[in-house]
């Protein structure tokens, strides 16, 4: 497995925000549109709203504990 480049590491906060939005929207859709008694388990979309807020405050991948030094550009 190759190491992440500096550009890839720097993009992680944006990717994490996008992932949180995607999961929140999927959960919200299921929360509103899945009928009772369905095999789909409704899960609270607010969990991902909290995650979105967290990732929105992150300005650098170093806040996730990743180091930019040593990574190739």
Could you explain how this protein is built, in words?
By secondary structure, the chain is mostly helical. The chain has a domain at 20-61. The protein is 55% helix and 0% strand. It has two helices and no strands. α1 (6-33) runs antiparallel to α2 (46-57). It starts with 5 loop residues before the first helix and ends in a 16-residue tail after the last helix. The model has no long low-confidence stretch (mean pLDDT 89). InterPro entries: Kinase-like_dom_sf. This is Homoserine kinase. It comes from Brucella anthropi.
Summarize the structure.
The protein has 73 residues and is mostly helical.
Strand tally? 0
Low-confidence stretches: none
Overall radius of gyration: 16 Å
Q: What is the beta-strand fraction?
A: under 5%
Number of helices: 2
- Helical residue percent? 40-55%
Q: How is the quaternary structure best described?
A: single chain
Instruction: Summarize model confidence as the mean pLDDT.
Output: 89
Main β-sheet, in a few words? none
- The structure class reads mainly alpha
Q: Which outline best applies?
A: elongated
Please give the alpha-carbon distance between the first and last residues. Answer: 17 Å
Order of helices and strands: HH
């Amino acid at each position: 497995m190759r190491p992440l480049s500096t550009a890839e590491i720097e993009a992680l906060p944006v990717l994490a925000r996008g992932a949180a939005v995607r999961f929140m929207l999927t959960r919200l859709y299921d929360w509103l549109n899945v009928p009772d008694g369905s095999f789909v388990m409704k899960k609270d979309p607010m969990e991902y709203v909290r995650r979105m807020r967290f990732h929105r405050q992150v300005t650098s991948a170093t806040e996730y504990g990743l180091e930019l030094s040593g990574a190739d550009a």
